[in-house]
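Sequence only, no structure available. Ideas?
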Amino acid sequence: DDNFDSLSHVVLEGRRSINNIERSASLFLCKTLYSLILGFIFIFLSKSYPFIPIQLSLTSMVTIGIPSFILALEPNHDKIKGQFLVNVLSKSFPVALSIVLNIIFIIVISYMFNLSYQQLSTLSVITTAFNGFMLIYKISNPLNITRFLLLIFMITIFMVGLLLFKSFFSFATLNFLMCLLSLIVIVSSILLFSILTDFFDYLVKKFPKFFN
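Reply:
I predicted one. C-alpha cells follow.
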C-alpha cells in the first residue's frame, strides 16, 4: 500500500509464522524421530512393535494434531532467536530419545513381570503421551490461559481414552501393578526428559559452530 508504517505489521506477522511453525515442527519431528528409531530397533528384537495403529491415533491427536493446530494460529510476536533447525531439534530430539529409552525400559520390565503385549503397549502409550505433554509444556512456555487450557484439555482427552475407552484402543486394565509401573515410567520420563534436554542444550552451547 506504499506505506512504510505497514512494515511493522509485516515483521510481526513474519515472527508469528516462524515462531509458530517452529513449535509445530517440534511436535511433528518428535514423532518422526522416535518412530524411526523404534522401527530400526524392533527389526532386531523378537518383541512386536509396542503400538497398534489405533493407539498411535490417540497419542498423535492429543500430542500433535490438536495442539499444533491451536498453537499455529496463536498470536506470537516474540523476537526470532537462534537457528530454526537447531531450535526444533533441541526441543524434539531429547523427547524422542526419552520415549525410545523408556520403551526399552518397559520391555525389560515386561520380562521381569511377565507382562502381556497389551500391558506392554499400554505402558508404551502412557510414556509416549506423557513425554508429548512435557514437550507441549516446554514449547508453550510462558503459559497463558489458552496454552494452559489446551494442555489440560489434551490430558483430559487422553485420560478419557485410557480409562473409559480401553477396549476400543486395546488398553490393558489399570490394576495395582499397572498403576505402579505407570508411575515408575512417568518418573523415568521426567528424569530422562530433564537430563537429555540439559545435555542437548550443553552441546549447543559447547559446540556452537557445529550446530550453526
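The chain has a mean pLDDT of 87.
Hope that gets you unstuck.
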